[in-house]
Design brief:
- The complex is a heterodimer of chains A (166) and B (396).
- Chain A is mainly alpha-helical and 166 residues long.
- Chain A folds into 2 domains: 2-126, Four Helix Bundle (Hemerythrin (Met), subunit A); 127-166.
- Chain A is 78% helix and 0% strand.
- With 396 residues, chain B is an all-alpha fold.
- Chain B is built from 13 helices and 2 strands.
- Chain B has a two-stranded antiparallel ribbon.
- In chain B, α3 packs parallel to α9, α5 (148-179) runs antiparallel to α7 and α9 crosses α12.
- The longest helix of chain B has 35 residues, at 8-42.
- Chain B is globular.
- The chains are: A mainly alpha (166), B mainly alpha (396).
- The A-B interface holds A 27, 31, 34, 50-51, 54-55, 57-58, 61-63, 66-67, 69-70, 73-74, 76, 127-128 and B 78, 81, 120-122, 125-126, 128-129, 132-133, 135-136, 139-140, 142-143, 151, 154-155, 158-159, 161-162, 165, 169, 182.
């Protein structure tokens, strides 16, 4: 059952991810990206990380993507015009992709040689309490640094926005 | 396969889903009737009156009208999105009712079950996540309609919902700090014991309650924040191009969202199904007294009718109210009917506030709307959360 659900939503995620690139209209790409976020949230849920799943939907699918859609609608972005691919892309695209996937597979194989499959529901650190404790004890420094990074990004946006106004 | 061989959990859940769905749909239909009546009385007119006694069959007439109307699809719309948007809006609006607990356990024969479809340990986050996905229904409807008014409505609504979601989430976080749980059922259980134990009083969360309510008005696109469908600027906003049942789905989604946020306010701040004072001081008599009073008043007015029709309708309602008053005192239903009454009473009071505000306040201007949330509501909510967190940390 777990495996079937995993395969269904992993497939949806991959298909949507490819669709983001393939679609020519920005709104269609954005909807595909929402699909990716949503199926990732369900994959988190299958793993037993319910808090991360909810946060994924609230933050990524519910807030960031709404802003994406908002900006696309505001600018009324039209259909992308396809230009011909360059010679290099036509020649090397597929072999490079195969080489990249092979490299990823090799690295994963080397890192986890036992090859144990993911045991669904075996992960118990997904509750809000566990995440909170991990963030404020083990991962306190990365957490604080990330928050400062986000703050800098917000300040930068404000500074850039103000420059426009003058 | 006989009934015994199926796991009782499955068919109990199915029955619960059926009951909740039926009650929710009836409430949705009649909420609109109540709203029209309330606003009519605020504006000193009788409101819907001709379909059935006191216009009570008006929702049925509206449903028939909406179903039989021609379902128009304008040309040059983005078909899949145009057709999918109302579906998305209504699905997301109805989904969150599945985690709302309406009362304590109920005993049916040998089975004991909670008056809630399912209890998630991230129930609050689930409701937030589902409601944040509901924005897409409105945004896509506005974009796909290929109409400048619709587009402006969709844009306004997505910006407004994103902006008001922040103070709303922060206002929700404060009572969560006090109750120390994300499960809606446990949230109520931490507040049981009368009005002095509710998060509103016990936790001193009056500020976050008010912020939550204001943000809830904006999240549900209600007056004074109904900018996405401001009729004198945008015709009907995001649903200008929709007709028939597709229009009805947006309408139902708005009312379902209203019910959800009212339930959330009840659960987070007002102690859910908990009675305001203990049963030994007579709180279990309150529903009976209210219904008996309503029955007596109705019968009195039926005997001295202001209109000809009242002579027949009002006594009937009076008798129905008296029967309900008697049912509340029946010992075998009292254990679950009275908590259900308190839950419905609190939720109903908040829903009434929604209508009251609609009949009272004018609409904000768009810049006022944005300035209000970012420069006032958000900092106040943040401050309230900080103070609450400091007090909780100091006391524990």
């Amino acid at each position: 059952m777990d495996v079937i659900l995993f395969l269904i939503f992993a497939l949806i995620a991959v298909v949507c991810a490819i669709n983001v690139v393939v679609q020519t209209h920005p709104i269609s790409s954005a909807i595909s990206l929402i699909g990716v976020m949503g199926s990732l949230a369900i994959l988190y849920l299958l793993l037993g990380a319910e808090f991360i799943a909810a946060a994924q939907v609230i933050v990524y699918a519910g807030a960031i993507m709404v802003l994406f859609v908002f900006v696309i609608m505001l600018l009324n972005a039209g259909v992308e015009v396809k230009r011909g691919r360059s010679f290099m892309v036509q020649l090397l695209g597929v072999p490079l992709l195969i080489a990249f996937l092979g490299l990823v597979a090799w690295i994963v194989e080397r890192l986890y040689p036992e090859g144990t499959t993911v045991h669904f529901g075996g992960f118990t650190g997904g509750s809000a309490q566990a995440i909170g404790r991990a963030l404020f004890t083990t991962y306190l420094l990365p957490f604080e640094i990330t928050s400062i990074l986000v703050l800098i990004a917000i300040l930068g946006a404000v500074v850039l926005g103000r420059k426009e106004m003058d | 396969m006989s009934l015994q061989s199926i796991d009782p959990f499955i068919w109990i859940s199915l029955i619960k889903i059926l009951v909740v769905f039926a009650v929710l749909m009836t409430t949705l239909a009649y909420l609109q009737w109540v709203e029209r009546k309330v606003i009519a009385h605020i504006q000193v007119r009788p409101g819907p009156f001709y379909v059935g006694p006191h216009g009570l069959l008006q929702p049925l007439a509206d449903v028939i009208k909406l179903i039989t109307k021609e379902d128009l699809v304008p040309s040059y719309v983005n078909k899949p999105l145009y057709l999918g948007a109302p579906f998305l809006a209504i699905t997301m609006a109805l989904l969150s009712i599945s985690v709302i607990p309406f009362g304590p356990t109920i005993q049916v024969g040998p089975y004991r079950t909670w008056m809630q479809l399912t209890d998630l340990n991230i129930g609050v986050l689930f409701v937030l996540a589902v409601s944040s996905m509901g924005v897409y229904g409105i945004a896509f409807a506005g974009w796909a309609s290929n109409n400048k008014y619709s587009l402006l409505g969709g844009l306004r609504s997505s910006a407004q919902m994103i902006s008001y979601e922040l103070p709303m989430s922060i206002a929700i976080a404060a009572p969560l700090l006090i109750s120390n749980t994300l499960s809606l059922r446990q949230l109520v259980e931490t507040q049981v014991g009368g009005i002095w134990h509710w998060n509103l009083i016990h936790g001193g969360q009056v500020v976050s309650f008010i912020i939550f309510l204001i943000a809830a008005f904006a999240e549900t696109n209600r007056v004074p924040f109904d900018l996405p469908e401001a009729e004198n600027e945008l015709v009907a906003g995001f649903h200008t191009e929709y007709s028939s049942m597709k229009f009805a789905s947006f309408f139902m989604a708005e009312y379902a969202n209203m019910i959800t946020v009212s339930c959330m306010a009840t659960l987070l701040f007002l102690g859910g199904w908990d009675a305001p004072w203990d049963a030994k001081y007579g709180s279990s008599l309150v529903p009976s007294i209210i219904f008996a009073l309503a029955g007596v008043v109705a019968i009195f007015h039926g005997l001295n009718p202001a209109r000809k029709r009242d002579r027949y309708t009002l006594p009937v309602f009076g008798v129905i109210f008296l029967v309900i008053a008697a049912v509340f005192q029946a010992p075998f239903v009292q254990s679950w009917l009275i908590p259900l009454f308190w839950f419905a009473a609190k939720t109903g009071a908040i829903l009434f506030a929604f209508m009251w505000v609609r009949g009272t306040l004018p609409r904000f201007r768009y810049d006022q709307l944005m300035r209000f949330t970012w420069k006032f509501l958000f900092p106040v909510a943040m401050l309230n959360l900080l103070v609450t967190a400091a007090v909780v940390a100091w006391l524990s």
